[in-house]
Structures are given as C-alpha cells and as structure tokens.
Model the fold of this input.
Amino acid sequence: MTTNPQPGDIAAFDWDGGNNYTGGHEHIGIVRSVSGGAGFTTVEGNTGNPNGGSDGVYVKSRSTNSGYDVLFIRVR
Done:
C-alpha cells in the first residue's frame, strides 16, 4: 500500500475517516491518471454521475486532501 497514486492502482476510500476501512462508508476505484500534487482521476462503479442523474460507472476527479482517507493498492 502507498499514499502516492499511479495509474492502475486500486484506490480505497474511507469516507468517514479514521483510516479503518471497515465502518461501512468505504468505496474503491481504479486510478486512471495522476495530475501532480494531490489530484488524480479514477474509474468507479456504483457511484453518482458527476453531472447529475443515475448511478453507474464514471470517471471521477479525486484528491488525497479532500477530507476523506484514501490509500492506494499497487498490484504488480
């Protein structure tokens, strides 16, 4: 696990914080790109449309400093 994303990493989100990833407010995505600093984009399923509308699979802009915990799992 790492806190520095690379394309292809699995991003694990803990929306309610605490870095426990077990409280029922967790989510995952796949890192698509990294935009320097804390920004990255993911492909996520079972998620809200960033433009409104129904849930589905979407590309989302995320950040490592947005008030939630995130770590990256690198599969080699």
About this structure: The chain is about 0% helix and 45% strand.
